[in-house]
């Protein structure tokens, strides 16, 4: 008869404090309490699913009732430890508050706590999902938690601390359990694969740990599924196929197409059409692309921590190389556009894949066209340089206007002298009369023709008055103005 298969999540469930993955705060505090014989009467473990709340509660129960303890650890070999491990101990009672949430259930519990343990020294009650209890049940539990019998220890576990009344919290020692970092989960999965003789790529294990979202139990459950799917040879390509996730190359290609003005509509929307034809989840595609843009933006700003980004080192390097020439402002703009797309899809209550495909395609085409309009920063920069030109300042070649060759100062124009007539007397000579009301006009300097850089920006039109309002309208809103609008480069004094 063949042995019954035991799933990885149960086979590798920690049986000692030293085997717990992370959760150093709770483990360290409980070990010190055991060494000093200061075990409390009520504990409350709060944290996300699958991080070890019930597991640590069982280890604590084993150590309290262990017949041959080893420092702060249970021996894990005596009858008491084995009965707790296998689930038939009469001294450790696990209660699911989701299905035993009424006041009558708590009243029954209050009657049973009076009885002393059968074999061990303490009776341990582990109440899982305690936030599911009704208000009346919580009130019935208050007095028992505050003054339980000496032989009773309560361990409450919950994933929603905000639903626990303050009166309950004040009677418990509260420990917060945190999600396990992705890199730590990856190492844990690699060690289990080594023990099970499973070949697995590091990137594949990273993807499994990332899907586990900080939960050891969820990661092991998905590893079990991956082993069956990949036939004990786990690769990152097969894991992406199993999870339905999209590759980094797909998002790099879409981003490159959006930023390239020469890319046509067919090449731009081809990845979306391919995902639709293969039955992929377009809503998930938008979310993962938003996550990619967020990651690329952090990488462009110098953040490369794998745990923070949720990517393996190889993926971080690929994004660094693919996005090295993309300004962070462009990535932020793309993220905002995708976020708006997600909001519109939710507002329109789009559920059909074909409707989602149309919305995504039209959004990508609109974003592609918008990405190549002059940005507001460019317009402001152009207007700043235009203002300098109008004020007569020199502008360097790396700006919008090329530096204009300095004009040689023109020789002062001689004042016209009265013509001398040979037969005219002194009375015929009349000096010029200057009117105090109309002063003489200053000498106007010749206006230089626009150079090549100016023609490129403003066109080859004449020298009519230039309107900053029209230029802003043309460059920001994309509307037309007078084709011969050209700034007066001579300036006004």
From TrEMBL:
Alphabetized CDD domains for the sequence: AAA, HLD_clamp_pol_III_gamma_tau
Enzyme Commission number(s) from the entry: 2.7.7.7
Catalytic activity: DNA(n) + a 2'-deoxyribonucleoside 5'-triphosphate = DNA(n+1) + diphosphate
Domain AAA+ ATPase, first and last residues per copy: 39-181
GO process terms (BP): DNA-templated DNA replication
Record InterPro entries: AAA+_ATPase, ClpA/B, DNA_pol_III_gamma-3, DNA_pol_III_sug/sutau_N, DNA_Rep/Repair_Clamp_Loader, HLD_clamp_pol_III_gamma_tau, P-loop_NTPase
Disordered: annotated span: 403-469
Biased composition (Basic and acidic residues): 452-469
Pfam families reported for this sequence: DNA_pol3_delta2 (PF13177), DNA_pol3_gamma3 (PF12169), DNAX_ATPase_lid (PF22608)
GO cellular component: DNA polymerase III complex
Keyword annotations from UniProtKB, A to Z: ATP-binding, DNA replication, DNA-directed DNA polymerase, Metal-binding, Nucleotide-binding, Nucleotidyltransferase, Transferase, Zinc
Metal-binding recorded as keyword: yes
GO molecular function per UniProt: ATP binding; DNA-directed DNA polymerase activity; metal ion binding
UniProt key word Lipid metabolism: no
PANTHER family in UniProt: PROTEIN STICHEL-LIKE 2, REPLICATION FACTOR C / DNA POLYMERASE III GAMMA-TAU SUBUNIT
Family: Belongs to the DnaX/STICHEL family.
NCBIfam families for this protein: dnaX_nterm (TIGR02397), PRK05563.1 (NF004046)
Purpose: DNA polymerase III is a complex, multichain enzyme responsible for most of the replicative synthesis in bacteria. This DNA polymerase also exhibits 3' to 5' exonuclease activity.
Known partners and oligomeric status: DNA polymerase III contains a core (composed of alpha, epsilon and theta chains) that associates with a tau subunit. This core dimerizes to form the POLIII' complex. PolIII' associates with the gamma complex (composed of gamma, delta, delta', psi and chi chains) and with the beta chain to form the complete DNA polymerase III complex.
Protein name, as recorded: DNA polymerase III subunit gamma/tau
Organism: Leptonema illini DSM 21528
Gene transcribed to yield this protein: dnaX
């Amino acid at each position: 008869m063949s042995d019954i298969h035991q799933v990885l999540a149960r086979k590798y469930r920690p049986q000692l404090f030293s085997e717990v993955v992370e959760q150093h705060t709770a483990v360290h505090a409980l070990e010190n309490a055991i060494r000093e014989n200061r075990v409390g009467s009520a504990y409350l473990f709060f944290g996300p699913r699958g991080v070890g709340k019930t597991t640590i509660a069982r280890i604590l129960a084993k150590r309290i009732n262990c017949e041959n303890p080893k420092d702060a650890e249970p021996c894990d070999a005596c009858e008491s430890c084995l009965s707790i491990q296998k689930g038939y101990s009469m001294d450790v009672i696990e209660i699911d508050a989701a299905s035993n949430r009424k006041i009558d259930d708590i009243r029954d519990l209050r009657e049973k706590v009076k009885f002393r343990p059968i074999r061990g020294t303490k009776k341990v009650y582990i109440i899982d999902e305690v936030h599911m209890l009704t208000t009346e049940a919580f009130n019935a539990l208050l007095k028992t938690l505050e003054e339980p019998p000496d032989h009773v220890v309560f361990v409450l576990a919950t994933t929603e601390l905000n639903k626990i009344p303050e009166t309950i919290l004040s009677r418990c020692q509260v420990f917060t359990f945190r999600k396990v970092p992705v890199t730590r989960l990856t190492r844990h999965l690699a060690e289990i694969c080594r023990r099970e003789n499973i070949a697995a790529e590091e990137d594949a294990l990273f993807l499994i740990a990332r899907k586990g979202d900080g939960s050891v139990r969820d990661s092991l459950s998905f590893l079990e599924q991956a082993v069956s799917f990949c036939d004990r040879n786990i690769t990152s390509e097969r894991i992406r196929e199993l999870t339905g996730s999209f590759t980094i190359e797909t998002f790099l290609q879409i981003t490159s197409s959006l930023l390239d003005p020469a890319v046509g509509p067919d090449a731009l929307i081809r990845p979306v059409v391919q995902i639709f034809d293969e039955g992929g989840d377009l809503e998930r595609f938008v979310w993962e692309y938003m996550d990619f843009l967020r990651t690329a933006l952090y990488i462009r700003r110098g953040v490369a921590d794998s745990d923070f980004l949720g990517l393996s080192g190889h993926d971080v390097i690929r994004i660094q190389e693919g996005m090295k020439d993309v300004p962070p402002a462009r990535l932020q703009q793309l993220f905002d556009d995708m976020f708006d797309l997600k909001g519109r899809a939710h507002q329109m209550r789009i559920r059909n894949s074909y409707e989602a495909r149309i919305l995504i395609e039209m959004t990508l085409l609109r974003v592609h066209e918008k990405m190549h309009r002059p940005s507001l920063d460019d317009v402001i920069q152009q207007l700043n340089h235009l203002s300098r030109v109008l004020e007569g300042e020199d502008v360097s070649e790396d700006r919008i206007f090329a530096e204009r060759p300095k004009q040689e100062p023109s020789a002062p124009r001689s004042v016209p002298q009265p013509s001398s007539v040979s037969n005219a007397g002194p009375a015929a000579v009349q000096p010029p009369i200057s009117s105090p009301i109309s002063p003489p006009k200053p000498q106007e300097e010749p206006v230089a023709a626009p150079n090549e850089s100016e023609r490129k920006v403003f066109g080859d039109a004449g020298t009519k008055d230039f309107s900053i309002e029209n230029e802003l309208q043309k460059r920001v809103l994309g509307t037309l103005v007078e084709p011969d609008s050209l700034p007066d480069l001579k300036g006004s004094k």
